[in-house]
Design brief:
The chain has 431 residues and is α+β, with helices and mostly antiparallel strands. The chain has helices at 18-21, 29-52, 57-76, 92-101, 104-109, 111-122, 127-151, 163-191, 204-226, 231-253, 265-282, 296-303, 305-321, 346-361, 390-406, 426-430; strands spanning 286-293, 328-333, 336-342, 365-367, 370-372, 376-382, 412-413. Helix 3 runs parallel beside helix 6 and helix 4 (92-101) packs across helix 9 (204-226). The longest helix has 29 residues, at 163-191. The termini are far apart.
Length: 431
């Protein structure tokens, strides 16, 4: 689940605020209500099923074995760590057999020990995120389990090889995936209404990963139904896939700014250099923007760094939502952002910059008894008009940004004068 940075909420007088002691209270009220509703639903389902479930030793043994496999998977990948924000794993390979083979109560309980293990052994985050993750997975898993047991009254039939139980298993596994993704997506959207749905719903990569998880989970369930000892054979390939997946996510995380999710300065520079080389080769136009949040220090001093972080996150999300997929946007440091606009001329660049300024100006971040609003200033530089490489464009845009601040902020400026034309090559001079 996407959540704000865990910056300290201690006020300037040094005494922790109520929101500092309870990070959930620092979130938007709709998110708090949604969080409490999902957790309450999960707890109510557990309480109800505890009184109506017939406990059997074989069920407890299978639950313990599958949980142990999940724990081994976590421990085997622990040294790799886990990226911040919304991350993916293959623990569904162990949750889905619980969903399909055991009574629904076990589906509710399965995420709890593994989420505790992730918190203690892999990456400690604010507790409410782990609680919500366990509740969301549990609710989705319980619904899928109820559906499967209504369809296939004898779960052992899954290992018989007949088509009907396997089709039911695949359908209910897909149901679990859809419900779990929907619950997380609603939480992300509630936390940040400006975020576009497509940023955290399915794309080609996430859909492929979901399909892999579904296949793994159903396969492990069939093997587990045949003989619980077959989990020993299923464990190594799942661990290997889990390590590969986390390694790829961590490589991607190394390119992004952990607070805003945008490209970090080094990754942005590499992407920008590539775009500039392409623009030179094709002769297309290109624009560069440097965006700065006006009076950002005043926000930190007045409302605290936690609210300041929320402002940064909000501005970053607003910028990203107003740009094209192939525009290159990153955090340059502090409250500065950099944007490269391929195939944008001076008119298009000014139009985009003005739209960003207007949208950020309408953004509001909740704080104690107030809504925090900010403005931005931006400097715009055009390739071959204000510079011919990345360094020159950055310098020109920075000068334009300085001019915007001198003129009163909350405005868009271009450099006062275009740069000199590029020096001619030897061939041009002698030709």
């Amino acid at each position: 689940m996407t959540a704000p940075s865990q910056t300290s909420a201690t006020p300037r007088d040094g005494s922790p605020s109520r929101r500092g002691r309870w990070p959930l209270l620092a979130q938007r009220r709709p998110l708090v209500v949604y969080f409490c509703g999902i957790v309450a639903l999960d707890l109510a389902a557990i309480a109800y099923l505890l009184t109506s479930t017939d406990f059997r030793l074989s069920h407890v043994a299978a639950f313990a074995a599958l949980t142990a496999c999940g724990a081994v998977c976590i421990e085997a990948t622990r040294r790799l760590g886990m990226p911040a924000g919304v991350s993916r794993d293959l623990l569904s390979a162990w949750w889905l057999p619980v969903v399909l083979l055991l009574p629904p109560l076990y589906a509710l309980l399965a995420p709890i020990p593994l989420q505790i293990l992730l918190q203690v052994r892999v990456r400690a985050t604010v507790v409410y995120r782990r609680v919500f993750s366990a509740a969301a997975i549990g609710v989705a898993a319980c619904a899928a389990s109820v559906a499967f047991h209504a369809w296939i009254p004898v779960p052992a039939e899954l290992s018989s090889g007949r088509a009907s139980p396997i089709v039911a298993a695949v359908a209910c596994a897909a149901m679990f995936t859809v419900l779990n993704t929907a619950l997380i997506a609603i939480a992300v959207r509630t936390a940040d209404p400006d975020t576009r749905w497509r940023e955290f719903l399915w794309n080609r990569e996430s859909a492929l990963l979901d399909a892999v998880e579904l296949c793994l989970g159903v396969t492990v369930a069939i093997a587990c139904g045949l003989n619980l000892a077959l989990l020993v054979l299923a464990l190594p390939p799942v661990v290997l896939l889990q390590r590969s997946l986390l390694h790829a996510q961590l490589q991607a995380a190394a390119r992004t700014d952990p607070k805003t999710g945008l490209l970090n300065a080094a990754a942005w520079q590499r992407e920008a250099d590539t775009e500039i080389v392409r623009a030179r080769r094709t002769g297309e136009s290109l624009a560069l923007l440097i965006v700065d949040i006006d009076h950002f220090k005043r926000v930190n001093d007045t409302y605290g760094h936690l609210v300041g972080d929320q402002v940064l996150i909000g501005v970053a999300a607003t910028l990203r939502s107003q740009l094209r997929d192939y525009d290159v946007v990153g955090r340059f440091g502090g409250e500065e952002f950099v944007i490269l606009l391929p195939r944008a001329d001076v008119t298009e660049a000014r139009r985009v910059a003005e739209r960003l300024r207007s949208r950020v100006g309408r953004m509001a971040v909740p704080a104690d008894h107030a809504m925090v609003t900010v403005t931005i200033s931006a400097g715009v530089a055009i390739m071959n008009m204000h510079g011919h490489d990345l360094i020159e464009l950055l310098a020109a845009a920075d000068l334009a940004l300085y001019r915007a601040k001198e003129l009163g902020r909350d405005r868009i400026c271009l450099p006062a004068r275009p740069s000199a034309p590029p020096p001619r090559t030897g061939e041009e001079m002698t030709g």
